[in-house]
Design goal:
This protein has six helices and four strands; from the N terminus they run H-H-H-E-E-H-H-E-E-H. The chain is of the alpha+beta class and 196 residues long. Strands 1-2-4-3 form a four-stranded antiparallel beta sheet. 16% of the residues are buried.
C-alpha cells in the first residue's frame, strides 16, 4: 500500500461532497503512484528543483565559466524574456513577449517572425509560435517555445532528464536570440520613435 500524505488525509471530510473528492484523490494517488504534497512540501520541492538545476548547470563546460549562466529577464529589451517552465506534464524553454499593450506585444512578435530562421536554428522540428498564449494567471502573452511532454516535476527520478532538456534547449535558444538581439532592439526603438 502506498503512503498518501495530504492536508485532508488526517481529517475527516466535513460533508459528503468533500468525502467524494477525498476518495477520488486517494484513488488517483494510488493508481498513478503519485505523492500528494502539502503547500509547504510543494514549495520546498520547487526550491530544491531549481537549486539542483543550478548545480547541474555548473557542471556543464559551456556554462561553468559563466558568472550569469542564463540571460532570462536581462535581454536588454523591455518585456522580452527568456524563461524555463516545468509542470506536471511538460517542460518548456520560452522566449516570451509580455507587454501589457496588445498592439505593442504583437508588433514585437511580428518583428521576431522576421528572424524565425535564425531563432529556430538547431531545432529540427522548429519552435512553437503562439501570439495569444494565456498564462495560468489569465495574462495574455506571445510565446515562442520548445516543449517536451511526459515530464513531471514532482517525479524526482525525471529531474536529470528535465535538466538536460532545459540546458540543451535554452542554451540553443539563448544563443540564437543573442545573434540578432541588438538589431531587434534597434528596430523596437525605431518603432517607439515613429509612434511619438
Amino acid at each position: 500500500m502506498y503512503k498518501i500524505i495530504s492536508a485532508t488525509h488526517k481529517k475527516k471530510p466535513p460533508n459528503p461532497a468533500g468525502f467524494v473528492k477525498y476518495l477520488r484523490n486517494i484513488i488517483f494517488a494510488e493508481t498513478f503512484h503519485t505523492h500528494m504534497y502539502t503547500k509547504e512540501e510543494k514549495k520546498e520541492l520547487v526550491k530544491r528543483f531549481w537549486t539542483e538545476f543550478d548545480g547541474y548547470c555548473s557542471q556543464l563546460p559551456e556554462l561553468a565559466v559563466m558568472k550569469k549562466k542564463w540571460v532570462l529577464h536581462r535581454t536588454k529589451i523591455s518585456n522580452v524574456v527568456l524563461k524555463f517552465e516545468v509542470g506536471r506534464e511538460f517542460a518548456d524553454v520560452i522566449l516570451e513577449i509580455s507587454h501589457k499593450n496588445e498592439a505593442r506585444r504583437l508588433e514585437v512578435y511580428e518583428l521576431l517572425e522576421k528572424y524565425r530562421l535564425l531563432l529556430e536554428d538547431g531545432f529540427p522540428e522548429g519552435l512553437i509560435w503562439d501570439f495569444a498564449f494565456e498564462r495560468d494567471n489569465g495574462q495574455e502573452v506571445c510565446r515562442i517555445y520548445e516543449r517536451k511532454t511526459g515530464f513531471d516535476m514532482h517525479r524526482q527520478k525525471q529531474w536529470n532528464e528535465i535538466f538536460a532538456f532545459f540546458a540543451e534547449n535554452m542554451l540553443r535558444l539563448q544563443n540564437n536570440f543573442l545573434d540578432f538581439r541588438d538589431v531587434l532592439k534597434e528596430e523596437i526603438l525605431a518603432l517607439n520613435r515613429r509612434e511619438q
